Amino acid sequence: MTLTGSGSAYDPPGPAPRGPVAPSHVREHGPARRLDRRVALVTGASSGIGAATARRFAMDGWQLLLNGRDRRCLEQTASGTSALVLPADLAAPGGPRLLAQSALHATGRIDVLVAGAGIGWTGPFAAMPHTDIDRVLALDLNATLHLVREVLPSMIEAGRGRVVLLGSAAGCSGVREEAVHSAAKAGLAAFADALRQELRGTGVGVTLVVPTRRDSGPYDHTTPRPVSPGNVARDIFESVRQDSDEAPPTPTWRALPSRLRALTPGLNRRIANRRY
């Protein structure tokens, strides 16, 4: 059974273009855009965390570039703003490259990339279709890395910028029946750490956002609990404003799973099995 993973900003399936629209077909909404404003490219902006993040940045006067699979939902997110809509399926061949080209052509700069697009799959790994394994890894991990690779040179050349990656509690400590999602998010966390070290001194920062539970609501799993898109959007915005590498700041309890796993793997497995 497929559904959005913990903290995912995946756009629900719909009519999906094969690639980003050409710059001449970019649709603009609301007040005229001003190129002197800071520019944020937000993927997964059709719904969920991505849409909430776009609205939060718009409140602060940012120029927005919105990416997702569903044009109609993107236009709803963009309503009342000067956002540019760039619909695309990032998992399609060449999707990240074409999106980056369209975005840079439209505004000439990207100050912040919020890579929020993702998909989850819940169920026994032995029953997971091979096509779904490929799809989760392609969108949650591969497409994100390729998009960062396309956007990063312009940030380094400008001597400023920030890459924001959407992690998950599942990437900190694997979640039963979310094995591939957990693997993808763990890979994204390692990528964020490695890239952050490479970019020291360039003026470009890397933020890993790991949503933490703050409110109540329905969810199929006992742990990890989901968090509201609005809360995650607030954390993302504050991390950019404060040039923070983590959002929210890592509490002591969140470091415990990885430390426990490293020091006492057997005990860690027993605790994990008792959570379900």
Descriptive notes:
This protein is α/β, with parallel strands linked by helices. The protein has a single domain, classed as NAD(P)-binding Rossmann-like Domain (Rossmann fold), CATH 3.40.50. It contains nine helices and eight strands. Strands 1-4-3-2-5-6-7-8 form an eight-stranded mixed sheet, sandwiched between helices. The longest helix has 29 residues, at about 130-160. It is globular, with a radius of gyration of 18 Å. Residues about 1-25 and about 215-220 have low confidence and may be disordered. InterPro entries: KR_dom, NAD(P)-bd_dom_sf, SDR_fam. It comes from Streptomyces koelreuteriae.
Number of domains: 1
CATH class: Alpha Beta
Largest sheet: 8 strands, mixed
Number of DSSP helical runs: 9
Give the distance, in angstroms, between the N- and C-terminal Cα atoms. Answer: 18 Å
User: Strand percentage, roughly?
Assistant: 5-15%
CATH topology tier name: Rossmann fold
Approximate shape = globular
Order of helix and strand elements from N to C terminus:
EEHEHEHEHEHHEHEHH
Q: Low-confidence parts lasting 5 or more residues at pLDDT below 50? A: 1-25, 213-220
Strand order in the largest sheet: 1-4-3-2-5-6-7-8
